[in-house]
Amino acid sequence: MADQRAIRGVNRPLRRMGAGACALVVGAALAACAPGGSANDEDEDSQPEGPVSTEVPDEDITLTLAFTDGPEMVEELTAAFEEEYPQITIEEQYTQFSDYVQSLRLNMTSDSAPDIAQYAVVMKELVANGEIMDLGGYRDAYGWDEKFPTVSMDQLTSDESGKVYGTGNLYGVPAGLSLTGLYYNKELAEQAGITEPPTTLEELEQALAQAQDAGLTPISVGALDTGGIHLWAALINTVMPVENYRDWVNGVEGGTMTSDDAVAATTMFTDWAEAGYFNEGANGTGQEDTTTEFINGESVFLINGNWAAGQIAEEMGDNAGFFLMPGQDNSAEPIGSGFSVAYTMSSRTEHPEAAAAFLDFMASEQAAQVISDGGFLPVNTEAVPEQEGVLAEVDSGYQSAVENERINQFPDFAAPAMLDELTSGIQSLIAGQMEPAAFLESIQNVRDSYHEQ
Fold first, then answer.
1. How far apart, in whole angstroms, are the C-alpha atoms of residue 306 and residue 293?
2. CATH topology of domain 20-178+340-383
3. Which residue, 437, 420, 433, 449, is CA-closest to 27?
4. Helix runs in 219-286, H state only
5. DSSP-assigned beta bridge partners for residue 67
6. Top-level class of domain 180-337+411-452
7. Which tens digits make up the pLDDT trace of 285-309?
8. 13 pLDDT above the threshold of 60
């Protein structure tokens, strides 16, 4: 796999650079690379039973926080939290992505496990072994259902096996959210006769054709890493019923990606590739490079996420716009793919009330400002700092998607091995080396094999 730190923009505020996959890769990569071992059953009794307390002890407490995303953002978050709770000190345990991948499972099952850790799909197994605390009691006590977006909370619930999402217990809370969509160059769009952002899928196809007819590259797709997946997922989100997609990605029994809707969306993707709508050499170009090419005026549209908005806004100013993939008709609410930097609590922590207070802090106005400055979308939509230009359009799309519960998990969450299968399969579709039905069958097999284990 490519260097995930380069893809995901670790170490830098994501609004300031053209990160590629962002949250898409964190689940599958961490799960696929986790080392072996087994959890210690002795600590299962540390799961809270009965009512929990939101009263934080007055004595001095030190919490450890293990994470791999946004060191500057986390530093500011912990500082703001410590100002609110001066008796609590948070020791940050930042680890570069590759090392975090290798050490997370062993770290969380050790006697020195961190109190709080950044969520990753590898924690599915830790959920099954009782190493991650069920946060249901704190959700009720703090009223998190009212503080955090429902659609994002659902992404962090699972059954006790850790394999089926969207139901069961809560094992984390969201912090900074992400969302994918389409950026467009207003000057180039005008050259092609495109005066407004497309409001239907048909209008978008017409716009791509207009751009091509004007001698322009219609859309930049960084399929070397995850840009192709983002575009394919956007079409799936639009054409496939939301509940059917979520059954598939969440691991619900019977969930399928081989339906007629999925074939239709994938066929549209291959039709666009065959028509020459994608940038030349899309399979050899990463998301960061396509963002640079888009900024330099080499395409009318770009598929990417909110993590690229800062760089685009800074370098393109009012010439850039953003919208979510439009629906099949004007009545359809747009939907995007996204996930969040999220935090879980170890069942081994000796200070659950203090750790829960930190998780609750993610919904505060103070945290919203820090998270926004860090390049993510705050979970507290009412406290989203006012933006201008393309940043405002990204935030507007995000708030609309949250309010209408129109954010789907990235497709690699369907199984630990899914990211590699998606990447190679999408590249084969673009190259005309695989039929849509065969591609869908291949990713369905990966998903089914995982759930049969």
1. 17
2. D-Maltodextrin-Binding Protein; domain 2 (3.40.190)
3. 420
4. 227-239, 242-250, 260-274
5. 94
6. alpha beta
7. 999 999 999 999 999 999 999 989 9
8. no
Provide the whole-model pTM: 0.81
Domain ranges of the chain: 20-178+340-383, 180-337+411-452
Instruction: Spell 237-251 as b/e; 16+ CB within 10 A means b.
Output: bbbbeeebbbbbbbb
- DSSP letter at 294 equals H
Are 133 and 349 spatial neighbours (Cβ–Cβ below 8 Å)?
A: yes
For residue 340, CA distances in Å to 148, 256, 362, 411 come to 12, 25, 12, 14
Residue 304 in contact with residue 180, Cβ under 8 Å? yes
CA 447/CA 252 separation, integer angstroms = 11
> 237 Cβ partners below 8 Å, 6+ apart?
245, 325, 335, 336, 337, 408
What pLDDT is stored for residue 44 in this prediction? 41
Number of H helices, E strands in the chain: 20, 14
- In sequence order, the 6+-apart residues with CB closer than 8 A to the CB of 199 are 326, 330
Structural element, H or E, at residue 176? strand 173-177
Q: Which of 447, 415, 440 is nearest to 254 (CA)?
A: 447
pLDDT digits (tens, 9 = 90+) for 85-96: 999 999 999 998
Tell which residue, 61, 165, 168, has the closest CA to residue 119: 165
In contact, 123 and 129? CB cutoff 8 Å: no
Nearest to 119 by CA among 414, 342, 357: 342
Using only C-alpha atoms, the chain has a radius of gyration, in whole angstroms, of 21
Q: What is the pLDDT of residue 386?
A: 82
Residue whose tokens read 């969440």: 250
Q: What does the block give as tokens for 15?
A: 């609004």
